[in-house]
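Shipment paperwork, digital attachment
Item: protein structure file
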Amino acid sequence: MASIISIYCVSIAYDDMSPSEIRIVRGAISRSELVAMAEARFGDMVKAVVDVSRGVMAVSGELHSDEEALLLEDGSRQTDLWGINLYPNELGSEWIEFDSMINVRPSLNNRSRDVEDESTRVAIRRVVETLVTNP
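Attachment content:
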């Protein structure tokens, strides 16, 4: 009985999350849109997962893993996905935080939540800067 209840609860959690909450950004998104997303969920931050190969990102999920799953379903490869947090009201390099549990990948020499490889950080920044417009 306990496992049935457990499965039912997981099902409810996914049913409550509408697909419109997570958005795959393939073209431009404005900072003002990100501000609105941040205010609706976490206050000042938007979680995002960037596909450094395809040049897209998923935004506004409650968990990086939810965004990661959506991008995998959309054709991304696991090794190309990196979790970040965006602070759209911040300026300069402070607005991108390279911190997510999905970044822990010992097989890729990334042993922490941080993105440790500078060339990967550059690739992430490039995708974000291409997709996010001002205002």
